[in-house]
Specification:
Blueprint: H1 2-17, E1 35-38, E2 43-45, E3 54-59, H2 64-80, E4 86-91, H3 98-107, E5 114-116, H4 121-125, E6 133-137, E7 143-148, H5 156-165
Parallel strand pairs: 3-4, 4-5
Antiparallel strand pairs: 1-2, 1-5, 3-6, 6-7
């Protein structure tokens, strides 16, 4: 009896220590769901983005590369928003940072939607190991392209992918 009890405890101990295998989010995967809030506190989810292609950018105000790519994300939004494309940012700054996020977006004149997820659940859902992370998602919610770390949103290859999702639309002229 003692041997079986010890064996059972050892087996249960090993099972409790198992860590699920890490599987990074890949192109072609469905965009994971997420829950966040607007800066006014209204709830939003990833399902709210379905129906039109979008660029999801996960960032924080304290992240220098995140700050650097924001103006180009705004340019990308401006170039294609009138054709149904959206850029959406989700800040993972801490719970008390809504005012700071608002000041940051005002300072940089960010006009695309900014949401807030202080729980960092979106970071786990999108398999990020650092910030920023950006994902180009089609209207049905499939990841078309991803960038782990900073990127240049206005590079021609990025715009080519956006235009392909929009049916070869041309960017709006500033």
């Amino acid at each position: 009896m003692k041997k079986s009890a010890i064996g059972l405890l050892a087996t249960l101990g090993c099972l409790a220590c198992e860590v699920p295998e890490f599987k990074p989010l890949e192109v072609g995967d469905p965009a994971p769901g997420f829950a966040a809030t607007t800066l006014d506190g209204a709830p939003v989810t990833g399902d709210d983005l379905l129906g039109a292609p979008y660029m999801l950018n996960i960032w924080a105000t304290w992240c220098a590369p995140c700050r650097e790519e924001m103006p180009e994300l705004q340019e990308l939004h401006n170039a294609y928003a009138d054709q149904g494309f959206r850029v959406v940012g989700v800040s993972v700054d801490d719970r008390s940072s809504a005012d700071l996020i608002g000041e940051f977006t005002e300072e940089l004149q960010i006009g695309f939607p900014i949401y807030h997820d202080p729980s960092w659940e979106i970071v786990d859902a999108y398999s990020l190991l650092g910030l920023p992370g950006s994902f180009l998602v089609d209207a049905e919610g499939t990841v078309v392209r991803k960038w782990m770390g900073p990127f240049r949103p206005m590079e021609e290859d990025v715009q080519d992918d956006v235009r392909a999702l929009l049916g070869d639309a041309e960017p709006a002229q500033p």
